[in-house]
Amino acid sequence: MDSELTQEPYATVAETPSAVVYFAGDRAYKLKKPVDLGFLDFRARQAREAACKRETELNRRFAADVYLGVADLRDPSGRVCDHLVVMRRMPAARRLSVLVRAGEPVADPVRQVARVLALMHAAAPRSAQISQAGGGDALVRRWDDNVRQTTLAGAGLLDAGTVAGIGQLAWRFVVGRRLLLERRISEGRIVDGHGDLLADDIYCLDDGPRILDCLDFDDQLRWLDGLDDAAFLAMDLERLGAADLGRQFTDWYAEFSGDPAPASLRHHFVAYRAFVRAKVACIKAAQGQPAAGRDARQLADLAHRHLRAGAVTLVLIGGLPGTGKSALAGAVADRLGWTVLSSDRIRHELAGVAAPTAASYGEDIYTPAWTQRCYQELLHRAAALLANGESVIADASWISARLRASAAEVAERASADLVQLRCAASADLAQQRMAARYQTVARLPGESDANWDVAERMAAIAQPWPAAITIDTETGGRTLSSAAFGKLVDRALDAVRPHGPEHVWRPTRPLMCPD
User: Fold this and answer.
1) What burial letters (b/e) apply to 3-21, b meaning 16+ CB within 10 Å?
2) Bridge-based pairing state of the strands 339-342 and 313-318
């Protein structure tokens, strides 16, 4: 590190709204400004002294060998007139942000940061007061405050409709995920964290990363969900053009912290952090920094994209037997990482049947009462998953308008999006597919029992489904090629995520359509 420091000016000065930092040799000295910025008031010397001590104390949790202490400044008479935070000077060339922009390999230090953050969170204090900061009411207040402040600061910079849409998407997620948020509180995941984890404040040294400059002027802004803390850096890495590394970072954090949070919550927290930075950029633009306006628009777009990508969704994939709905449901679930609930599998579970049966339609486990019980259980499981932030694909025939209405009610109660897809194929092709399925020697548990007779009887009572998007699986015959099936899956994905493929996992091997 010493050789890197010698390449920098021996002495230099940097300034922030609340401090001046003097760099000299291998030391940095931070002097608090005697200013009142509304959210902090450093006009009194005693307030600046307390702030210096608090900054040192809090940041030693992450970089004890960087924050060396607090020094007094004295006037010629020896009277203490101010105070300095004394720090080891970090080499600017080793900033994580500098390395990312330069395309340097930084996966190892970023993984180390995830581990340090998880360890710090594990040791962080917890209390009832801290836990309240992770509840639904607190999150709604945070979003409301930032939407209001950004609307004012971003007038003329950001589209008002976009800002309002961001607020609506955020509110919808939080309101429907109160159960998830309460569970995270009960698991002790709300901590006194870093609060401002940016790539500019992380230095990748040979002996490990140093994390600097935590949020020290307001304790309550540092009380947050551990994943929210990690999402700050994930957002910043994406802003720097390293979105994949940002996703890896949250994966590593989840691994080290043992956090099974759903992807939707990660998206939500990344969106929140991006929106907060968009607000800050709007303020900077108003202060005469022209580039900040562009940054504000990019960050607001990043927030909007993550909120859309993380929208909790219930997808109904239905159709008559032999139309390929189960194959499509499985493929879409694989691409999105979502849960599939199959009516056939649930029906067999409820009946204690390990394998497909030869029951006739309307008899045994296929009476109307059994069907009602099966769909009720499917929707009960879907509701629990949606409340916990997991999107669901419900694979069933959905020929009943009443049952589809019940599914819509479940989505509405969970503040989840509802997407309805109906698979369709000609009667001849569906019959061929079912015949091929019944020729299989060993059939899978949970596989459909339907034969052609069942399909005909279901078709006779199927009710119109005008709200559904039809996916025609006719093309390609009984066994679709990988390319043809892939196009069907892409069409379904376009319906489920109409705003683009961002954050959709794509397999490296071609999709194969099962017979």
Assistant:
1) eebeeeeeeeeeeeebbeb
2) unpaired
Its domain, for residue 294, covers 92-309
Q: Do 132 and 199 fall into the same domain?
A: yes
Measured distance CA(224)–CA(230) in Å, rounded: 10
User: What's the CA gap between 196 and 214, in Å, rounded?
Assistant: 6
Instruction: Please indicate, yes or no, whether residues 335 and 475 belong to a single structural domain of this protein.
Output: yes
Give the CATH number for residue 454: 3.40.50.300
> Who's near 203: CB < 8 A, 6+ residues apart?
90, 91, 94, 95, 96, 209, 210, 212
Query: Which pTM value belongs to this model?
Result: 0.88
Query: Does residue 191 share a domain with residue 166?
Result: yes
Lookup: tokens for 229: 């803390």
DSSP assignments along 247-281, one per residue: HHHHHHHHHHHT----HHHHHHHHHHHHHHHHHHH
As a whole number, mean pLDDT of residues 391-404 equals: 97
What pLDDT score was predicted for residue 8? Answer: 80
Inter-residue contact 73 to 84 (CB < 8 Å): yes
* Boundary residue ending a domain (241, 274, 309): 309
Pairing of strands 313-318, 392-395: parallel
Where does a domain end: 51, 69, 88? 88
How many of the other CB atoms lie within 10 Å of CB of 364? 14
Confidence (pLDDT) at 505: 36
pLDDT tens for each residue of 48-81: 999 999 999 999 999 999 999 999 999 999 999 9
Look at 479 and 48; give whichever has higher pLDDT. 48
511 domain-assigned: no
Q: Within this chain, do residues 81 and 177 fall inside the same structural domain, yes or no?
A: no
For residue 150, tell me if it sits in a domain.
yes
Q: Quick one: pLDDT band at residue 507, thresholds 50, 70, 90?
A: very low
- The closest alpha carbon to 415, from 178, 189, 185, belongs to 178
pLDDT of residue 509: 34
